[in-house]
Amino acid sequence: MNSFYISNHFIIMSTCINNLESGEVCRKMLGFVRRTTKTSSRICSVNSLCYSIWRNEAVSSSNPDDSDFIQESVVPTFHFQASLPRLPIPRLDDTKRRFLNAFEPIASSNEEYESATKAIDEFVANEGRRLHDELVELNQDNYSTPRRLDAYYTDRRSLVLTSNAAMVFEDDPRPEYNEQLVRAAILLRSSLRFMNSVRKNVLEPTMFHAHPENSNTPFFKNFVSCVPSKLSWYPAHFLKATPLDMSQFKQMFNSSRIPQLGRDDFVTYDQAKHIIVTSKGSLYVFDVIKNNGSLALTSDIYRQLALISAHNPPASVPPVSVLTSEERDTWTVARKQLKAANEDSLKLIESAILCLCLDDDDTDNLNDAMRNFLHGNGQNRWFDKSMQLVINKRGLAAIHFGMSWANGLTIWRYMDDVYRDSLQSSFMPDSKTIDSGNPAFRIEFKLDSELLGKIEVAKNRFEKRIADLSVRHVKCEKFGRNLIKAKKHHGDALSHLAMLAAYYNAFGCFPSAAGHCSTAGFKSGRTELVRSLTREMGAVIKALWSGDERQLGDLVKKASLKHVFLIREARRGEVCSYLLRNGLR
After folding, report:
1. 103 occurs within a structural domain
2. pLDDT attached to residue 350
């Protein structure tokens, strides 16, 4: 027998089941929602509606070519968006306290600290209070994100090594699947399935489960899918599950950053069916969504990539892509000139689902590979694209993305789902796969002498810019997560401690240091700063370099606990308000 909880605003389905534990959870959730929403309610039986709450959780096809969806979740992708809580505005007095706590370790003297305290008191009592009240009156869902986006889009520096980042996929454990074109075709097919699941609202929402035995279950997912979106956050919160903001997933595909004087734009084109492929400095276009809406199969994708890879463009073709590595105002002017005779070509690039970069780099050196993923040679990238899937000759793969539109958590979710899905592919090309089919369309730009000169200048500036970057990696064989956990420390705290200690050893003073913490548990949440240099961190470092190691273990534990406390504060939005940070400048 099915029963429904009815109020003025919503209907929640519960089910009489044999599993007493799940039934008890259901009854508690109903009571929690009833108390939280404070609406009059009654329980009534509805025997005539034949609807079972027991449905499958997110389903993924065993073979990526069998379905156009990477997941088909019972809980819609954006189900929790309407009910996510707002990011709280920190109290001004709390901001003052946090600012002084962060400033104390870097103050060179008591006089400097007292001077800063006086300046803060004056600001809080006057302009700070007025600005704080104005911010409260704006009544925004998220007061921080619009200002963070402004900081990104008004930054006039090049995107290379500033606003763009890269994350690397693991190798496919099957060696034969790490051939460049095979891996590119499989990862692209999985990426399209991911995109399709987002567009059809069937990608499972990202959630943090404090008690997964209660909330990460088929029963809970089926239950919460029946709760109206405006109330769906409450039963999840009751079971200590935190739904995360999914708004960034709408900007993942078919998107580009558009340079403008003073402030860039970010544009998403929903209807485009094609991708861009960069190879040997040229750009190619082909459709990956058919006229009937279905996705191109892995074999179709591979065929096109094989034709592109085999094509050798004339050596005289200028690398227009390098213009996207310029400073933003410089690129704005050049793009305006380029658009005059190449508007359709620019539209194809900027509206593409994503950019696939087939690199000729075949290094097996991790340092060189990371440099390639971060910037490449500047000629085989379009740095304005929201996402670029980069694959070198050895099959090493990475995502190069702009941090203006997304945080690492969003990219991590995409990469995790796509990588797992790619491992299920059994595609391997044969003689029938490679034929003389119609090749992808190569974009040919019309360029005058002035634009050709700007391309040469951009190439030289790019080389100088990346020459300042040094990349080194260290592989720790004996020190890692297991040892840190065994000592009951926090990994993030120890990594910050190591960096601060190295800085102190090199320069004899402390820097103003901070790390990022996700606030994706709030509507439109991005990140907030965690001021990692605390009084406790400073005490550890001074003891370390003074040679006094008698109480070092206790000091490290205190520093780690303090860092964890600050992270938890930041996750709740309890941070040093940007008003005070910017006001004191």
Report:
1. yes
2. 98
495, two tokens: 């990594």
CB burial of residue 71 (10 Å; 0-12, 13-18, 19+): buried
Q: pTM of this prediction?
A: 0.88
The pairs formed by 359-366 with CB atoms below 8 angstroms and a separation of 24 or more are 359/390, 359/391, 359/392, 359/393, 360/280, 360/392, 360/393, 361/392, 361/393, 362/392, 362/393, 362/394, 363/392, 363/394, 364/394, 366/473
Residue 416 included in any domain? no
State the burial class of residue 369 (Cβ atoms within 10 Å of its Cβ: 0-12, 13-18, 19+): buried
Q: For residue 35, name the pLDDT band (cuts at 50, 70, 90).
A: very low
Say yes or no: 230 and 367 in one domain: no
The helix (run of H) or strand (run of E) holding residue 242 is: strand 241-243
Domain count, the chain: 3
Judge if 100 and 224 occupy the same domain: no
Q: DSSP per residue over 347-398, as a string? A: HHHHHSS-EEEE-------HHHHHHHHHTTTSSS--TTBSEEEEE-TT--EE
CATH assignment at residue 577: 3.30.559.10
Asked if 368 and 312 count as a contact pair (C-beta separation under 8 A), the reply is no
Query: In percent, how much of the chain has pLDDT > 70?
Result: 86
**Whether 189 contacts 63, CB under 8 Å:** no
- Given a cut of 90, whether residue 64 has pLDDT beyond it is no
Residue 563: pLDDT over 90: yes
Same domain, 108 and 62: no
Taking Cα atoms as reference points, which of 99, 98, 102, 90 lies closest to residue 132?
Answer: 90
Q: Establish if 488 belongs to a structural domain.
A: yes
CATH code: domain of residue 392: 3.30.559.70
What mean pLDDT is predicted for residues 429-452? 81
Query: Which residues form the domain of 342?
Result: 167-185+249-294+318-410+429-467
What does the pLDDT read at residue 437?
A: 54
Q: Containing H/E element for 330?
A: helix 328-351
Residue 401 forms part of a structural domain = yes
